[in-house]
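Running this now, will post back.
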Amino acid sequence: MDKAKSAELLIQLYDLRRETTMREARNWIGTFFPKSAEELSNTMMDPDVGGYLRMVISYWDMACSFVNHGAIDREMFNDVSGEFLFVYCKIRSFIPEIREMYDSPEWMAHFEKVVEGMPGSAERIEKMESWMKDFEAQMTEQASGQAG
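Update: finished.
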């Protein structure tokens, strides 16, 4: 694999993440903590924020497809961003049920393959999910403090 070409593609993916609507979607997904596959599914169809959710998760599935097909070096991809792991951990536990709900066995398959195939993936996922629980608790605490 041509490392220089892979680096160019990674920079292009980064530039796409800076697009205005994508930035809004990425900011929004940071505040979204689904509790069930039903909530995830309903949010995907929500006219106000569903586009944000679909944009972010499909972006990362697309980027991961480039990795899985060899267009982007896997090690480089894993090295340049932790955001894909953060997003994956938000939907991970609901992937099997969403696949069943929509009769779509390939839903997020590229995303899943890249994350689950990372060296030390189980530990990285566990660490990220722990961090996300703490982050969600902080956000909830701040929101309740502002409401009172």
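The chain has one domain: 3-147. More later if anyone needs it.
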